[in-house]
Write a structure and sequence with these properties.
Length: 135
């Protein structure tokens, strides 16, 4: 019986997860592989079994402390000294963020992230997401 060699990739049913890349040799027999789906697809299958809607998973924001300043219209000099890549255009601030240039309106909070990046946040979202940290 001839020796058979195969090279192949096994992808999860989601089409996004490469589970195995392998080379199999078989001499006169049949090669069997057992592969389980990725954890995300297992979770989806579990959710489908419960009859729940499948989609976005829930996450809790880590309890980190960030610095923030509120743009009040008269504190540009203070904000400019505190953060890099900020420009004022009339009553708006233009911030150079990791996602590109973003605009902060009067009343918006400017947040310095864990890597020193800046981004604007609307006051209502800021109030729901953040609270003063003890120093």
């Amino acid at each position: 019986m001839p020796i058979m060699e195969m090279e192949f990739e096994i992808w999860c049913e989601c089409g996004e997860c490469l589970l195995m890349e392998t080379k199999v040799s078989s001499k006169g027999g049949v090669a069997h592989l057992v592969v389980e789906p990725c954890p995300r697809c297992l979770e989806r299958a579990y959710d489908r079994g419960r009859g729940e809607e499948v989609g976005a998973m829930r996450y809790r924001k880590r309890p980190i402390v960030v610095e923030a300043m509120q743009w009040l219209g008269d504190n540009y000099d203070e904000i400019e000294k505190w953060g890099n890549g900020i420009r004022r255009v009339e009553t708006k601030l233009l911030l150079e963020t990791l996602e590109g240039t973003m605009t902060a309106d009067l009343g918006d909070w400017i947040i310095k992230g864990v890597k020193g990046e800046l981004y604007p946040c609307k006051p209502d979202i800021f109030d729901l997401t953040y609270e003063p940290a003890q120093t």
